[in-house]
Amino acid sequence: MDALDSHDIAILAALQRDGKMSLQDLAREVNLSTSPCWRRVRKLEENGTIAQYTAILDARKIGINTQAYIHISLLDHTQTTIDAFDAFVAREEQIVECASITGSDDYLLKIVAKDPEDLETFLMKGILSLGIVRSSTTHFVLRQKKQSTFLPL
Fold first, then answer.
1. Nearest one of 148, 132, 136, 152 to 77, comparing CA atoms
2. What is the percent of the chain where pLDDT is above 70?
3. Positive or negative CA dihedral for 18, 24, 29, 34?
4. 3-class DSSP state for residue 113?
5. Distance between first and last Cα of the chain
6. Rounded-to-10 torsion of CA 46, 151, 103, 89
7. Cβ(74)–Cβ(106) under 8 Å?
8. What is the pLDDT of residue 110?
9. Which residues, at least 6 apart from 84, have a Cβ–Cβ distance to it below 8 Å?
10. pLDDT band, residue 122 (cuts 50/70/90)
11. What is this structure's pTM?
């Protein structure tokens, strides 16, 4: 991948703030004419620097009032177990983030739910019913202090 120059960085910063920005507004903001700006955006999309465009929703306005982080430790680390857990994570919409982590646990999941009871159901009838989880520790989010999709440029 080519190194990012100041125009690329300005384009990425602007699109992180407003992914629906018109090409004309974007070009004006980054001090380029429309055609070169469009070519740069296309290049950033094609090389995967811009992975996707999305809308960020207000969770409470769509009935999601509970968030939790769940530490997961698997029974074993066989490929079959890992594949089964990865498949579960991939198909479950309530899991909005999953990271394989260091330390005494294997994974950290970020889960969203309608309410604590919905989260409990997901934990008991989803995660723990897989039969491959040794232990789980749930941490409810009391208040979100910072939530951002912006990456430092």
1. 132
2. 99
3. positive
4. strand
5. 16
6. -50
7. yes
8. 98
9. 130, 132
10. very high
11. 0.86
